[in-house]
Design brief:
The protein is of the alpha/beta class and 280 residues long. 32% of the residues lie in helices and 32% in strands. Helix 6 crosses helix 7. It binds S-adenosylmethionine.
Length: 280
């Protein structure tokens, strides 16, 4: 018998894919965690029924959350990741030789443990001596930090449940305080094609513009995330991602990536008219 799973994204739409078998199912203190083997995307991790990571295309999201801000900063040394328990973002941050230390603050230890069982290619990087894993709520952790990080990446779930606080102005203000004076914050910012998420994107943009001198939204296609188009917002105290020096740095890393390159970097900041109007 064929088994098909539909992840509902709004009352009238979703993503449907064929599941071969369920390998793991557990409820942590914060969310349900499922690992399924699929016909087309390999192993998939779902949190509360929503796709987080697929073997086949995880590189797109993880490279696109991490690399545009990492290359925009001329020498990122101290990096903080909030969320990101599967360690896909962490793995891509560690590619950079300038990075001396990465702290990852994930609320749910079970996510990292289960990722270690099914996605060892992502979690292997936790052995790197530059890594500190902290299991705590990112909102709590950030309250006690000041002038410390070159780069903060918010690799969160959707703005419901444990991640709700990661989409609030107060949290972005804590991030601003925890950054060095030339630091960069980059958030995953949901899909602009989902009506219910537009207000989240607009509010985040408004909040970030109120706190940072420069805010650069950018986009990438991701076939397994809601509506196939994903947004990020990079808030910068000083550096502009559209800069020939950034391009030279990207070229110097050759073919370290599966998705990201200099042309993708330059193109991802181009905004369709409907999004420009949305963000006015
Ligand atoms: N790529 C993903 C996406 O957008 O679908 C995000 C992946 S990552 C697994 C998201 C992580 O954020 C989850 O492991 C979740 O436990 C964590 N998280 C949610 N709320 C958090 C909070 N308040 N503090 C720290 N981590 C949080």
């Amino acid at each position: 018998m064929e088994l098909w799973f539909t992840e509902k994204h709004s009352p009238g739409r979703g993503l449907t894919y064929q599941v071969k078998q369920t390998l793991y199912q557990e409820r942590s203190q914060f969310q349900t965690i499922d690992i399924v083997e699929t016909e087309d995307f390999g192993l998939v991790m779902l949190l509360d029924g929503v796709i987080m990571v697929t073997e086949k295309d995880e590189f797109v999201y993880h490279e696109m959350l991490s690399q545009p801000p990492l290359f925009t900063h001329p020498a990122p040394r101290e990096v903080l990741i909030i969320g990101g328990g599967d360690c896909g973002t962490l793995k891509r941050v560690l590619i950079h030789k300038t990075v001396e230390h990465v702290t990852q603050v994930e609320i749910d230890e079970m996510v990292t443990r289960v990722a270690g069982m099914y996605f060892p290619l992502l979690t292997d990087c936790t052995k790197d001596p530059r890594v500190d894993l902290v299991f705590d709520d990112g909102t709590h952790y950030l309250r006690n930090n000041q002038d410390r990080f070159d780069l903060i990446l918010i690799d969160s779930t959707d703005p419901v449940g444990p991640a709700e606080g990661l989409f609030q102005r107060d949290f972005y203000a804590d991030c601003q305080r925890a950054l060095k004076e030339d630091g960069i914050l980059c958030i995953q910012s949901e899909s602009p094609y989902i009506d219910a998420l537009r207000e989240v994107i607009v509010q985040a943009n408004r909040d970030l513009r109120g706190l940072f001198p420069f805010v650069f939204p950018y986009l990438t296609p991701i076939q397994t995330y809601q509506a196939g188009l994903w947004m990020f917002q990079m808030a910068s105290n000083r550096y502009n991602p559209i800069n020939p020096e950034v391009g030279k740095r990207i070229d110097s890393m050759g073919s370290a990536f599966q998705f990201y390159n200099r042309a993708i970097h330059d193109a991802c900041f181009a905004m369709p008219e409907f999004i420009k109007r949305m963000l006015v």
